[in-house]
Amino acid sequence: MIVRILVAVAVSGATIALAVLWRRREGRFDEGSGRFTPADLGVVKIDRPSAVLVEFYGEDCAPCVTVEKRIGKIAAEVPGVQVVSIDAGARMEVADRHEVRRVPTVFVLDPDLRVIWRASGVPSEDAIRTALLGPDWAGRPSPNAVPRQRIAR
Amino acid sequence: MSEKRMVDKNGIRGGAGLSAVLLLVAFVFQWRAMVPAIGAALAIGSLFGLRYSPLGATYRFVKKASRLSIPVEPEEEPPPRFAQTLGFVVCGIASLLFIPGWNAAGWTLALLVAGLQGLLATTGLCIGCEIYLYAQRFKAHEVQA
What's the pTM? Predict the structure, then answer.
């Protein structure tokens, strides 16, 4: 009986540890690399924005709807930010080239469409603002590393 | 995105938490009958739709009886329904393993289900749903190729 209780506690502990790790990773922005082309974004020409938020979404993906709402809200707050949504299932080659392993995945691009940040999962609104505006947008420290200041204010 | 039947993600998480606890308690007290019972509950959700799942119904009952103000979080049904199918299959295999007396193997599978259900309940991370989405992408890849 004691062994079984210990096993049950171990399974619960492992689950909690995985849950904590998952929560730390989920929606966290990491520095990205590579560059999008206007064709990747499904546009022939892109107006020079201050930044571009790219969301890869998928069918049947409920968290994608949450992300879409969040980035739409923030894009409305921050002047010059352009939002592009890409169906990862329909545009597989673009998703593969940018190593999109799951949806939603959000990219923050600079005006030259270079990838500055990327996050898989559902980033918080604050994390998206920080990725766009830097750590000082509300006097708060970055939730991750300090972003490179390559995005025009 | 196409219109599909929606389910409450919090209901799925609540049901997952309930099944994880039941499987862990069953393991401690060696109630082997609980494994096929949970498998049957998952099978009902898988075959008839998640709104008929006894686990989800228990969550809704507890929520209503306790007047908990947990919001409804809509989610499209196919991925969690596929995940419940996987859970049903694994619980089914575990139940079959109990018949010839391979209890350790049966409980290992049951605890795997408990762990994954616990993960879903605590984080919302649904491994079965992720497998479904990968499979969809793979299928789309095949079609494009």
Answer: 0.74
